[in-house]
Every structure is written in structure tokens, then in C-alpha cells.
Amino acid sequence: MPILTIMRHAKSVDRMEAEDDFERGLTERGRADATEAGEAMKAAGLKADIALVSPARRTRETYKHIAEVMGTPPVDDPMVLYHATHAMLVRAINTAIEDGANDIVLVGHNPGIGALVHSLAGQSGRAVDLPMGWPTSAVAAFKVSVEDGDLIASERLMVFNPKD
Fold first, then answer.
1. What is the pLDDT of residues 96-127, one digit of tens each?
2. CATH superfamily, domain at 3-160
3. Four-CA torsion 98, 100, 87, 55, nearest 10 degrees
4. pTM for the whole structure
């Protein structure tokens, strides 16, 4: 059964400090939180054979902090992942699974990432203890399957909240 690891990008600079939203890089705290998230993923034994990463600067920088932990899989970074909706994320994950991926890491943006995590956690019966929304650098991992085009979570494997 495939394992899906979902991470929201780490804390980025304010919009007023960057040329545009797409080019917002990480703050010092963001880099530290991303490193801590990577350590939590390593402790949980997570890895990936494909990384789905939004092409925005903050998601690419976040991914650099966890790539080694994930086993440095090939990266797919289509523009569709930039501020993707829940439905767009599910399509990208389903495609990766249909193409043979067994372990997937997804690094993206709210509100899509948070909606996806909360939806999968609800399916697995373990949503009660999740933080509201989905904080920067937060990570969740699930055992998933695709049934009639729907992404289904059978088990939540871990959650990391840098604010805890």
C-alpha cells in the first residue's frame, strides 16, 4: 500500500520582502523548522520514490531540507502544484501512484495541503488532534490507496507540528 507524506512549505518571508509571491524564500526560522521536520520524518522511517514539489521558491527550498531524508527521489514540479486545490493535489498523487510510485512526498501550499491532510486524517479516523488549518513545516503521512479515482487513507502514520 502506498505511503503518502504531505508537507506544507516552511515559513517564508513576507510578501512585501519579495519581488513576487512565487519568489518568496524561507526565513531563518523556516529553514530550522524544515530541518526539524526532516528529522521527524527520518525518525518515522519515511522515504519516497517520487517527490511532488510546487515550483515556488519556498517549496523548493523546503524540499532541499528533507530531500536526503526522503532518499533523494526524482522531483516532479509542475506548475499545477503551485497553490493547487485539494482536487488538483489528489489528481497529481493518483497519477504518481498509477505510474508506479509506492512512496510519495508532496510539498505544497495551503489551503490545498491543509484540506488534503484533514480529509485523509478524517478517513483514517485520526483527525481530532490535528492543528487547525495546517501550519508551515507541518507534516503528515498516511497509508493510501486509489479506489475509483478517489484517494483513500486507511491509516495515519505520523504527524509533525513544529509549533508543538
1. 999 999 999 999 999 999 999 999 999 999 89
2. Phosphoglycerate mutase-like (3.40.50.1240)
3. -140
4. 0.96
